[in-house]
Design goal:
Multicopper oxidase, type 3; seven-stranded mixed sheet; about 25% strand; about 500 residues; EC 1.-.-.-; five-stranded mixed sheet; binds copper (II) ion; 2 domains; alpha+beta; single chain
Length: about 500
């Protein structure tokens, strides 16, 4: 029996049971104590608490196959089943609708025009300023005003023409990572071509016979360390089975940017600023999906030196491929953490069956913080400098960790994380993004460095967050999910005083 036949069979065989089961689960939730008794001031209920998880009209998807439910945490019956842990459970989107559009939060797509039978892209290597955190602008190298560069997205079988015009003050080379293309277009510095001089243009044109997760980058190491990379996604002509509803991409990078500097020390062996798609947590835009969807995430490590063990909370996913190709499903591996090495990509897929705001992060402790420095000493900012300090060492004050004041207001004294203290407008920037509507007010405290959030929202809350302009109180979506899917008796409100701010109101 083919997978397709099996699905149809299962659909007929289990639809009634599955719907019955979903109904039961909801009835249980409906009977739960919806009162968040620990907090009489908790945000009031929002959305439609009695809404049942539903399969969208027009979708063949079913709620449950072989004991695996797309609507509640479950593993299925048999590790040998194609549907164990949702392995081959399709999303809601039918394969006939084509591949789900690729989405790299905080990055644009590179536009193209059909010219002479090829998709023509214009890529511009240049120095760019990138806001890593609210108010922290760094000088890096990127493409078309962005670091990482904008995403190139094509379909297997396309012919592409990429017109690269170098706006850097120095030579560059552009490499199409993973492509099996004619040698003179490989972009390997001086081995296969001469440099693209400042102000000059080189045209790359080739047929894309592959499908998968690729990227482009400078082939000069120091430019790579400065951030020159971008996605090059090739969708398969025949949509991958099972089809997904979401296709997210995250590029992980490290930089060493000393306190008071905006330029990375690209030769450093140590790293203190960390970005996902060019943003440090909590400025990383949360990934938002709907309860029951099948979600793909593509991870790429483009750090100069360091690998990243990337961990998703609340779900078990299947690793379905890497940078070279999609893996045959017989070799997929279920995991919670994937170690991604430099210039490696890892793709995984899962059914979002556990609603909530799930932290999604690199697990290296040094990568879960921004701008840590180990100097504990005389790095003055205002009204002082290292020279003046050292001329006067006899009266140099002893280290005093409680000392405050302008001379001690330095990132290295004592060791601390820059960017933790934010002004109210900076906090508003974080709170007011659509994607973070209704999260706990204190979420920016939890999301740092190589961290973002995977939000799994029931239909009605997804619409409220992503499609409506209705205001949503801070914490209201979280509270609502605790009411419906969590343990309301253990609900904890966010404290009203955080980050030195107390506006007298609950946040
Ligand atoms: Cu890491």
């Amino acid at each position: 029996m083919s997978t397709e036949e099996r699905r149809k069979f299962l659909k007929v065989g289990t639809l009634a049971a599955a719907l019955g089961l979903a109904g039961k689960a909801i009835a249980q939730e409906g009977n739960a104590n919806l009162d968040l008794r620990n907090d009489p001031d908790a945000p009031p209920p929002i959305g439609n608490a009695s809404a049942k998880p539903r399969i969208p009209g027009g979708s063949d998807a079913v709620a449950e196959i072989d004991g695996f439910s797309r609507f509640k945490p479950s593993r299925g019956n048999d590790p040998e089943s194609d549907f164990y842990l949702g392995k081959k459970m399709p999303g809601f989107r039918p394969a006939s609708a084509g591949p789900a559009p690729f989405e790299a939060p905080d990055l644009d797509k590179l536009p193209w025009k059909m010219v002479g039978g090829a998709k023509e892209f214009h890529l511009v290597p240049q120095a760019v300023r990138r806001e890593f955190l609210p108010g922290y602008f760094m000088d890096v190298y990127g493409y078309n005003g962005s670091m990482p560069g904008p995403t190139i997205e094509v379909t297997q079988g396309d012919r592409v023409r990429i017109v690269v015009t170098n706006e850097l003050p120095e030579d560059t080379f552009t490499h199409w990572h993973g492509f099996e293309l004619p040698i003179q277009y490989d972009g390997a510095a001086t081995l296969t071509q001469n440099p693209i001089k400042p102000g000059k243009t080189m045209v790359f044109e080739f047929d894309v016979h592959e499908e998968g997760t690729f990227f482009y980058h400078s082939h000069i190491p120091m430019q790579e360390a400065f951030g020159q990379v971008g996605w090059f996604i090739v969708h398969p002509k025949k949509v991958y089975d099972p089809p997904v509803d979401r296709d997210f991409g995250l590029i992980f990078q490290n930089f060493n940017i000393p306190p008071t500097h905006t330029v990375s020390d690209s030769w450093a062996m140590d790293w203190n600023w960390h970005t996902i798609n060019g943003r440090s947590g909590p400025l990383t835009t949360p990934l938002v999906c709907k309860h029951g969807e099948r979600v793909r995430v593509r991870l790429l490590d483009f750090s100069p030196m360091q690998h990243h063990p990337i961990h998703l909370h609340g779900h078990t996913y299947w690793e379905t491929g890497h940078e070279g190709a999609r893996t045959p499903s017989s070799a997929w591996v279920p995991r919670n953490t994937s170690l991604v090495g430099v210039a490696q990509a890892t793709n995984f897929e899962f059914i979002a069956n556990n609603p909530g705001d799930w932290i999604f992060h690199c697990h290296m402790v040094h990568h879960m913080m921004n701008h840590m420095v180990r100097h504990v000493g005389p790095r003055m900012r205002e009204n002082s400098n290292v020279d003046r300090y050292q001329q006067n060492t006899s009266t140099r004050p002893a280290v005093d960790y409680s000392r405050e004041g302008q001379h001690w207001d330095t990132p290295g004294y004592p060791q601390k994380m820059q960017g933790m203290e934010r002004t109210m407008p900076q906090m508003e920037t974080l709170w007011n993004r659509r994607e973070s509507k209704g999260m706990r007010a204190t979420y920016p405290m939890a999301v740092k460095g190589l961290m973002t959030v995977m939000r799994v929202l029931p239909d009605d809350l997804y619409n409220l967050v992503m499609e409506s302009d209705e205001p949503v109180e801070k914490g209201a979506v979280f509270a609502e999910i605790v009411r419906r899917f969590g343990d309301p008796s253990r609900y904890e409100p966010a404290p009203s005083m955080m980050m030195g701010m107390d506006d007298g109101k609950k946040m």
